[in-house]
């Protein structure tokens, strides 16, 4: 014991720094583990033996599918969201751009498919025809919106849209997970400091008693492994509040449910289920052919309705085949103009659907296990690798400590 005390007295600065170095090991290993979850976005190294890709971007497809399943199963009923849209208000918001679009489409189609007939019409007759088409356009839009709303599942595959969006845009997937878990990541790093310092105190005493070169690297490795494992567990567990004396214990992520729900809802509403993305999915998704058929049917009915009185004459003058071509071209132009036209109603659509609020409310009603499923998949995949890296870094730093103290 005298020898131990003598060594402590002679090398007290070294012993005093041990807990701080251990705290540094704990912090560094946590920061490295956190960054390895998200970076790099693409594989860096020599495949398949040496290199790394962030856990989240590497398993982007699987994580996107998990996030989408959670979204479509537990958080959002898209039919319910679309029910909030009032076709009358949408039509009112689109009135001016709709009239301009109808004017351009009608003139272009008539001029292209039957220029002679269009040219012989007096200017007044041309304007009268355009005005008549424009007058019926709002009703056509209302009926079309109602048709889409009633047959939403047939024209929109929201799961495909969301998975495709998150898989294609890796930075978005990373941001979705990282932004909602930022305090948890900071907690993991801070926990490394506290746990590392405590283990460093024990490490100093063990070194004083044994002076074995393996003590420091083994302790360093254990600090990295244990603190990584414990910090991740403390994010999620316990799921329900547990009272220990005057202290209430609960996983940090579970405690932040209200804040996470608000952040997640806003991110989904502003980055994923936007009006532009939904429209793009309607027009280009796997079920877009059904929407095209609906547009062609609606436009065809409108053309037939306008031409009903003069249809025999019109068919004779234009020809049945040419009339069908005109309908098809009018429908194609209507689809092409749709994104630009709908942009004028984007503010109302976003406000009416209120995706962020719906998701927030549904998340607050989730069970603790369901809520954990929002973030847990990001840690579960390759979690052991992150913990192992912490152990390796801790071991190396411990070995450097030995060289410093015995050098």
Give an account of the 3D structure.
The chain has 407 residues and is mainly alpha-helical. The chain is 81% helix and 3% strand. The protein is built from 25 helices and four strands. Strand 3 (242-244) and strand 4 (247-249) form a beta hairpin. The chain is elongated. Mean pLDDT is 76; it is low at 309-317.
Compact overview of the structure:
With 407 residues, this protein is mostly helical.
Average residue-wise pLDDT: 76
Helix residue percentage: over 70%
Largest sheet: 2 strands, antiparallel
Total E-strand runs: 4
What is the H-and-E element order?
HHEEHHHHHHHHHHHHEEHHHHHHHHHHH
Q: C-alpha Rg, in Å? A: 32 Å
Structural class: mainly alpha
Strand order of the largest sheet: 1-2
Which overall shape is indicated by the principal axes computed on the Cα atoms?
Answer: elongated
> Helical element count?
25
- What is the subunit organization of this protein? single chain
Straight-line N-to-C gap: 24 Å
**What fraction of residues sit in β-strands?**
under 5%
Low-pLDDT segments, ≥5 res: 309-317
């Amino acid at each position: 014991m005298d020898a131990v005390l003598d060594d402590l007295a002679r090398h007290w600065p070294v012993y005093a720094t041990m807990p701080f170095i251990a705290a540094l090991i704990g912090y560094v290993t946590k920061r490295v583990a956190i960054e390895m979850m998200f970076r790099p976005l693409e594989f860096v190294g020599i495949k398949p033996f040496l290199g790394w890709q962030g856990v989240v971007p590497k398993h982007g497809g699987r994580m996107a599918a998990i996030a989408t399943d959670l979204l479509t199963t537990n958080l959002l009923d898209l039919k319910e969201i679309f029910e909030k849209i009032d076709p009358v208000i949408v039509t009112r918001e689109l009135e001016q751009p709709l009239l301009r679009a109808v004017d351009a489409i009608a003139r272009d189609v008539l001029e292209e498919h039957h220029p002679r007939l269009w040219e012989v019409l007096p200017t007044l007759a041309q304007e009268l025809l355009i005005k008549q088409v424009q007058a019926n356009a709002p009703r056509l839009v209302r009926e079309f919106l109602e048709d889409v709303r009633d047959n939403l599942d047939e024209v929109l595959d929201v799961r495909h849209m969301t998975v495709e969006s998150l898989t294609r845009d890796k930075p978005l997937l990373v941001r979705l997970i990282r932004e909602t878990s930022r305090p948890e990541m900071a907690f993991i790093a801070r926990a490394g400091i506290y746990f590392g310092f405590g283990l460093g105190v024990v490490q100093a005493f063990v070194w004083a008693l044994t002076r074995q070169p393996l003590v420091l690297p083994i302790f360093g490795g254990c600090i990295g492994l244990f603190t990584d494992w414990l910090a991740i567990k403390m994010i999620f567990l316990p799921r329900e509040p547990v009272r220990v004396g005057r202290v209430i214990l609960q996983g940090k992520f579970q405690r932040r449910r209200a804040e996470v729900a608000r952040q997640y809802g806003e991110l989904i509403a502003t980055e994923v289920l936007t009006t532009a993305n939904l429209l793009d999915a309607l027009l280009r998704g796997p079920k877009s052919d059904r929407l095209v058929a609906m547009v062609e049917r609606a436009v065809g009915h409108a053309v037939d309705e306008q031409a009903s009185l003069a249809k025999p004459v019109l068919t004779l003058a234009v020809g049945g085949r040419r009339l069908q071509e005109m309908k098809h071209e009018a429908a194609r132009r209507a689809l092409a103009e749709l994104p630009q036209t709908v942009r004028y109603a984007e503010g109302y659509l976003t406000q009416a659907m209120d995706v962020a609020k719906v998701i927030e409310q549904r998340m607050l009603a989730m069970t603790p296990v369901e809520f954990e499923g929002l973030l847990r998949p990001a840690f579960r995949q390759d979690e052991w690798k992150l913990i192992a890296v912490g152990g390796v870094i801790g071991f190396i730093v411990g070995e450097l400590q030995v060289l410093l103290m015995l050098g």
